[in-house]
Amino acid sequence: MDQLFDSLFPICRSITGEGLRETLSLLTEHLPLENFAVPTGTRVFDWEIPQEWVIRDAWLKDPHGNVIADFKVSNLHIVNYSEPIHVKLSLDEMKKHLYTVPHLPKAIPYVTSYYKRRWGFCISHEVLEALPEGEYEAFIDSSFIQGELNYGHSVLPGKSDREVLISSYICHPSLANNELSGPLVATFLYKRIAQWQQRRFTYRFVFLPETIGSISYLHRFGDHLKQNLHAGLVLTCLGGEKSLSYKLSRSGFNPIDRIWKQMLAQESLQGNTRHFTPEHGSDERQYCSPGFNLPVGQMSRMVYGAYPGYHNSLDTKETMTIEALQHSVDDLEKILLANEAEGYYINRFPYGEVKLDKHGLYPDMNSSTTFVRSNNQIEDNRVQLNRTLTFLNYADGEHLLTEIADLCRCSIESLLPYVKLLSQKGIIDGPYFEKGVSL
Amino acid sequence: MDQLFDSLFPICRSITGEGLRETLSLLTEHLPLENFAVPTGTRVFDWEIPQEWVIRDAWLKDPHGNVIADFKVSNLHIVNYSEPIHVKLSLDEMKKHLYTVPHLPKAIPYVTSYYKRRWGFCISHEVLEALPEGEYEAFIDSSFIQGELNYGHSVLPGKSDREVLISSYICHPSLANNELSGPLVATFLYKRIAQWQQRRFTYRFVFLPETIGSISYLHRFGDHLKQNLHAGLVLTCLGGEKSLSYKLSRSGFNPIDRIWKQMLAQESLQGNTRHFTPEHGSDERQYCSPGFNLPVGQMSRMVYGAYPGYHNSLDTKETMTIEALQHSVDDLEKILLANEAEGYYINRFPYGEVKLDKHGLYPDMNSSTTFVRSNNQIEDNRVQLNRTLTFLNYADGEHLLTEIADLCRCSIESLLPYVKLLSQKGIIDGPYFEKGVSL
Amino acid sequence: MDQLFDSLFPICRSITGEGLRETLSLLTEHLPLENFAVPTGTRVFDWEIPQEWVIRDAWLKDPHGNVIADFKVSNLHIVNYSEPIHVKLSLDEMKKHLYTVPHLPKAIPYVTSYYKRRWGFCISHEVLEALPEGEYEAFIDSSFIQGELNYGHSVLPGKSDREVLISSYICHPSLANNELSGPLVATFLYKRIAQWQQRRFTYRFVFLPETIGSISYLHRFGDHLKQNLHAGLVLTCLGGEKSLSYKLSRSGFNPIDRIWKQMLAQESLQGNTRHFTPEHGSDERQYCSPGFNLPVGQMSRMVYGAYPGYHNSLDTKETMTIEALQHSVDDLEKILLANEAEGYYINRFPYGEVKLDKHGLYPDMNSSTTFVRSNNQIEDNRVQLNRTLTFLNYADGEHLLTEIADLCRCSIESLLPYVKLLSQKGIIDGPYFEKGVSL
Question: Which residues does the UniProt record annotate as the domain UCP01524 winged helix-turn-helix (chains A, B, C) (predicted)?
Answer without folding.
Answer: 345-429
